[in-house]
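Recap for those who missed Tuesday's class. We walked through two folding examples back to back. For each one, the amino acid string is listed first and its predicted structure tokens come directly after. Nothing is annotated here on purpose, so try labeling regions yourself before you check the end of the notes.
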Amino acid sequence: MSTQPAGVPLLIACALGIEQLALRAGGRGGAGGPVTVLRTGMGPAAAERAVTRVLADPALRDAAVLATGFCAGLAPGMHPGDLVVAEETRDARGTTPCVRTGLLVKELARALPGRTVHTGPLTGSDHVVRGPERSALRATGAIAVDMESAVTLLSAVREGERPVAAVRVVVDAPEHELVRIGTVRGGISAFRVLRSVLPAFFEWHRSLLLPRR
């Protein structure tokens, strides 16, 4: 998915085919430079390999990186289709601060009026988190968990200084776990939300060309 020939490249990384499908269905154009949507594969090891390989390409060496896709919410009251904008991503290997999160929150609210947007730390895991483990992660201050965002952003900044961010759509929450009835409905809701996030991503991307305030 490429748009304009000039400007800072944007790499949007997701893990699953259905996430990539939602992003491609969201339309083209409107970014501040060339845009690539990368399907990394599921899990931290796959994400690390894919992101490191792609950023070795001279055309993407200086790309801004945005991790996206589905996640599990950790906070009570979260619902499928809610949005999570990470202030930072974290896992056992380190913490990566995210850039211009306030702008992302603003633009997501504009693109998806009525949808709840949560902000806070997004933590990484190497497996699907359920039950008591969800509560334990919540106790660390994290508001959501997924398997790829933390390693995606950490790998990106290790390859060179660059703006990074993570936006996830809740598909699984404390009162709406994947094993329960309603999973399909929640998944459809999350898919529709993910399909609508690209305008906010493009505004974030464009903002990187502007002086910091």
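Example two. Treat it independently of the first, because the proteins are unrelated.
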Amino acid sequence: MSPDQEPTPAADRPRAGAGRPLRAHARRNRESLVAAARAAFTAADDTVPLEGIARDAGVGIGTLYRHFPTREALVEAVYAAELDDVTGSAPASLLKELPPEQALRAWMERYAAFVATKRAMLNTLHSGWASGRLATPATRERITAAIGALLAEGVRAGSLRGDVEPDDVTAMLLGVFLSTAADDEPERTGRLLDLVVDALRPPGS
């Protein structure tokens, strides 16, 4: 199947992992493909050749198409993996390693990386969501829930304010990423994220 073929609607398309579990070798191939695609989309854009992604994953193009029959299917898998990481495993693991306010700041960096990956895939995502070929994820709700969990830990520790709505923090972060989207200045993004964290500290701290 070529990259230009019309994809199966999302509701009808079988997903890898649905029904019979993937065998270990197939699961490793799928994970390698998703990891290679994440790196490729972040470094370039969603027009990167699928052959290059397969090569970077150490598999043939036929293996890629067995797991992801279309470019949209691959983009959807990368987006889902990124969203699961930034809203699921990242907050919990950071809170195990760092005080809440530091965990929140480190999580903001992870969220920034997610936004960069999403931006690289935006054309494919938007066309897929608009056509119904890709399911629309509850991205903002999940991001806001992750922020809420980090804020709650900071409130309990006394290092973050308790009068802040998590969705307001989401809006602030989106403003930072939108205003710096055209810049190639990660230092500026970092300074703005530092200001956001400072705004979340209790007065006088």
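Answers for example two:
The chain has two domains: 22-69, 76-200.
DSSP finds nine helices and no strands in the chain.
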